[in-house]
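Minutes, project check-in
Item: structure for the 285-residue chain
Input as provided by the requester:
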Amino acid sequence: GAGGWSPLVSNKYQWLQIDLGERTEITAVATQGGYGSSDWVTSYLLMFSDSGQNWKQYRQEESIWAFSGNTNADSVVYYKLQHSIKARFLRFVPLDWNPNGRIGMRIEVYGCTYRSEVVGFDGKSCLIYTFNQKLMSALKDVISLKFKTMQSDGILLHREGQNGDHITLELIKGKLSLLIDLGDTKSHPSNAQINITLGSLLDDQHWHSVLIEHFNNQVNFTVDKHTHHFHAKGEFNYLDLEYELSFGGIPVPGKSGTVSRRNFHGCFENIYYNGVNIIDLARRH
């Protein structure tokens, strides 16, 4: 009706769904009760989706977040999200409402257009980026990307070096594993290999973000909001690696002792290497 959304039946199985038409970065939400009524929602959940099929609940402090709603029909309750949501579809799910009325909501969503470059991989391909070694800094290396997939295994990133040195970011059974195998194994047998695993159930067809930062011997590995900091000992020098990065697979199977490693099957978004937009570069060239 004209006064806002009020379902015929007030129970826990109602929701109000919005299609924003395209992926949008949502930064805040606001609610009111039904106009001129005794209908308002006192608490609700917020869910989001890219497809309208599989949904994720907004979480804060690692737990599902119930938003405090309204205490009357007309006051606006505004809530700035601690973490912005990138999604096309939103669902407001009422949990409780005025006991002397029904579910009633007017809502507003705040945000802006989300700029993204997306590339799909079919499990048989990879994207190779060769960069100018003159622009290469020995001190700093930053790689960031987002991915989503329904496959539990696949190579996200690989960089080969001389003598079998390599860095590989791989999805194994739904977890992300960063393997750094650098340095002469004869002179540094114990320090030559670093293998760190982060995340779980990352094959849930939702977007997950990855950030790898390398400054001198300090490496930060971040998956979603969880970061692992570590020092790489020994001969940790990115400059021993070739000036080529491959995303989604390993170009020459069998190199660096890789046996039966699967190429990535899914989507990447906004791949950046030291500020270079790799997907945009691939599209233009």
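Outcome recorded: The helical segments are 278-284.
No further action items on this chain.
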